[in-house]
TrEMBL record:
InterPro entries: RNase_HII, RNase_HII/HIII, RNase_HII/HIII_dom, RNaseH-like_sf, RNaseH_sf. It comes from Halonatronomonas betaini. It is an enzyme of class 3 (hydrolase). Coiled coil: none annotated. This is Ribonuclease HII.
Length: 280
């Protein structure tokens, strides 16, 4: 397949199998070369994929046509994702116009479960970045959240997650526990934020920073969405470990939430050391 890259790409010169291999490898190369680029630079990627599509469309074979159609669908999905990213950057862009530089998104995971800690993520994203596929963690599969975690940590100016255990939740109540976790996450950041964007109705009166609560913030602000992913992945992974200690509660599946199976296990075996007694 090396000959394809040395001269003009004419799809009809190659078998469908060769075309599939080439298109797959070129997509990996193109996406990798632009992975760290800002959204404004991504039309370069689109242009390169467009060239592949046009070459495939010039081939009359059905296999080539199907490849072209598949690429067009991927292009459309990428375009929609980029527009969604830009939309979620609007609030942060307005704050940057006001002079704020290190705008931190904050979100929690695990407010409602009957067992395990609550987690809060804090993420500061740079202005010139793009994380493909980022969204509210609740809308993403577990595999997608895991794959995004390393990219979020790599591209963030700074990121952190803090956990507050079930005993503290019982002692101070879940609302106060979330605030404790949020303050802890902020304190763990390598870069001090100059503005906070908090998901939902969360307010940190004890933190002397300008801040704003954003209803459904994990769907409206990229930094909050990133924080939601880190918080959920961190907590879910911990609950998976607890499943090894207490398999009868199936924390691997329910993550501590009160499913019928979980409730039945509680009825039969009673609470574990990680259960929130105030939630039972």
């Amino acid at each position: 397949m090396g000959d394809i890259e040395k001269r003009e790409f004419i799809a009809s010169d190659y078998t469908i199998k060769e075309l599939k291999e080439y298109v797959s490898s070129r997509l990996v190369e193109i996406e990798s070369s632009h992975q760290a680029d800002r959204p404004a630079d991504l039309p370069i990627l689109a242009d390169e994929v467009d060239q592949l599509i046009e070459a495939l469309k010039a081939d009359s074979r059905k296999g080539a046509s199907r490849l072209a159609e598949s690429l067009e669908k991927k292009q459309l999905a990428a375009s929609i994702d980029l527009k969604a990213w830009d939309k979620r950057e609007e609030m942060v862009a307005r704050l940057r116009d006001q002079g704020y530089q290190y705008i931190c998104g904050i979100d929690e995971a695990g407010r409602g479960p009957m067992a395990g800690p609550v987690a809060v993520g804090a993420v500061i994203l740079p202005a010139e970045t793009y994380i493909a596929g980022l969204d509210d963690s609740k809308k993403l599969s577990a595999a997608k959240r895991e794959s995004l975690t390393s990219e979020i940590r790599e591209k963030a100016v700074s990121s952190a997650v803090a956990l507050i255990d079930n005993e503290t939740i019982d002692e101070v109540n879940i609302g106060q526990a979330v605030r404790l976790a949020a303050r802890s996450a902020i304190s763990k950041l390598d870069r001090e934020p100059d503005y906070l964007l908090l998901d939902g109705g969360l307010k940190l009166d004890s933190v002397d920073l300008p801040q704003q609560a954003v209803i459904d913030g994990d769907a409206k602000v990229n930094a909050i969405a990133a924080a939601s992913v880190l918080a959920k992945v961190t907590r879910d992974n911990l609950m998976d470990k607890y499943h090894q200690e207490y398999p009868e509660y199936n924390f691997l599946s329910n993550k501590g939430y009160g499913t019928a199976e979980h409730m039945a296990a509680l009825e039969e075996a009673g609470p574990t050391p990680i259960h929130r007694r105030s939630f039972i």
